[in-house]
Structures are given as structure tokens and as C-alpha cells.
Amino acid sequence: MDTCALLPGVKAAARESGQLILSLYNSGRYQAQSKDDDSPVTSADLAAHAYLDRALRALADIPVLSEEGGDIPLAERRAWSRYWLVDPLDGTQEFIAGSGDFSTMIALIEHGRPVLGVVYGPVHDLMYYAVRGHGAFKEANGETTPIRARHYHQPVRSLRIAISRRQNVDWVRSRLTDDLDYRLLPLGSSSLKSCLVAEGQADLYMRIGPTGEWDTGATQCIVEEAGGRILDLGLGRLSYNERDSLINPNFITLGDENLPWQDILQAKV
In this structure, are 116 and 71 located in the same domain? Predict the structure, then answer.
């Protein structure tokens, strides 16, 4: 399978899904309810899921694993050498709140690793994408530019840290060494916060709380191709399709993995 050849179709599918979500967002004609785990889901999530399931299967005849269709047992999933991993609407709470910080996320997973990732934020017509081995890119305002995570060539004195608008700020501060100056950048969608790290606008994103593998698949490819890393709180690589549960561990997105993170985070992660 030529992964690069799939990229234009994936980008088009992400954009179409985003525009479908945006039409419901702008009109306000959607329904919201709670899942069994009390997380929100809307008719926009479900409409985007239905569209992407059809569109991605048409691009490549491989399985689709989506947040809105993730109840597939490991006994079936472990036979997949490749599959689409999708979050139709990342940032449902922000969608409901009207902040505009939400996105569509699509990844292609091969042998347990993300090899293609696309993130599209429809409100600002903003897209990030990457194919493993080919770099990471951002499309905005009609221009496409390569992106790179910020790396330091001297001791770090100040960091820019992306956090969730709904994150406990005191918890984040308690995890940082007292010797560090930092600026907190609150955003909604977890994918957009990781992409901030990928393009060098933030140095760290700390995510504490439940997420699914679909929340990191696309961004992991983008961040790694930009020179960063997404790691669990033990600084180990995230895994895909290896466990019964599709719930991620808590994780951090790093721009420069060579910084002394154990000291910066005081080994409290």
C-alpha cells in the first residue's frame, strides 16, 4: 500500500467531515447526550463518524476503528495489520460550549504504529498532516508550510505549556519544578494542543484524564515527523491495538525530548 498516495483522499475526507460538523455547529441544529461513561456525544459526532466510515473504506479496503464505533474486541482487532483510527469530532465539549476548538482526526495504523495522520480544525480551516518519513505540514490561509517542533541549543529557562481549558491548573503547576518560568496556553481539542507542540508554538502538552487511542494516533504521526514525541507519563511510547481497552494512559507531548524532563517535571509524572 502506497501511504503517500492515500494522503490526498484522507485530507479530502477530513475536510468534508469538518465541514459537515461546522454546518451543524453554525446552525445549532444538533442533539447532545451522554455516553455510558458520562462523556458527551452529539449528532455531529455521529454524522461525521458515518461519513468517515464510508469515505475511508472507499479509499482502502481496511477496517475503521472510530471513537463512535470502538466496541470491537481485541480478538478481532489483533488480526488487523493496518486500519484507520478515527476521532470524528475531537473536542466535543468545546463544540457544545461554542469555543470553536474542535477537530476531525484520522490516522492510518500499520503494525501498531501511526504512519499517516491528518487533523482538521474546520472553524479556522486549519489542517495538520504527516506521512511517516516525509515530514509534517500545516495548511492555513491558503499556504502549506513544513513544521518543526522547537528544540533548544542552550539550557532552557522558560517553557510554553499547552493545557486543556478544563484542566486543573493547580495540578499542572504542582508538577513543574519551582526553578522554571512558564506560560500556560489553554485550548480545547487535545489534537490541536499537540499540533501546537509540533509547530513549535508550545514546548509541552500535559494530558491528564481519560482519552482513547483515537485521540493520539493522528497527532503522534504529526508530532514525531515534526521532531517531537508523545509519551506516557513514564516517558514510554504509546501503544496501539495491543490491549483489550482502547483507553490511553495519561500522556505528554514533548517538542524536544532531549530536555531534562525528569527534572522539569520533578519526577512526579
Answer: yes
Residue 145: CB atoms within 10 Å = 10
pLDDT in tens, 99-137: 998 999 999 999 999 999 999 999 999 999 999 999 999
pTM here is: 0.93
| Residue 204 near residue 252 (C-beta atoms within 8 A) | yes
> pLDDT tens for residues 211-268?
899 999 999 999 999 999 999 988 899 999 999 999 999 899 999 998 888 888 864 4
Q: Which structural domain, as residue segments, surrounds residue 65?
A: 3-146
Q: Quick check: is 153 in a domain?
A: no
Among candidates 194, 191, 200, which has minimal Cα distance to 159? 200
Residue at which a domain ends, from 146, 177, 199: 146
Please, what is the Cα angle at 12 between 9 and 16, to 5 degrees? 140
Out of 89, 119, 146, pick the residue that ends a domain: 146
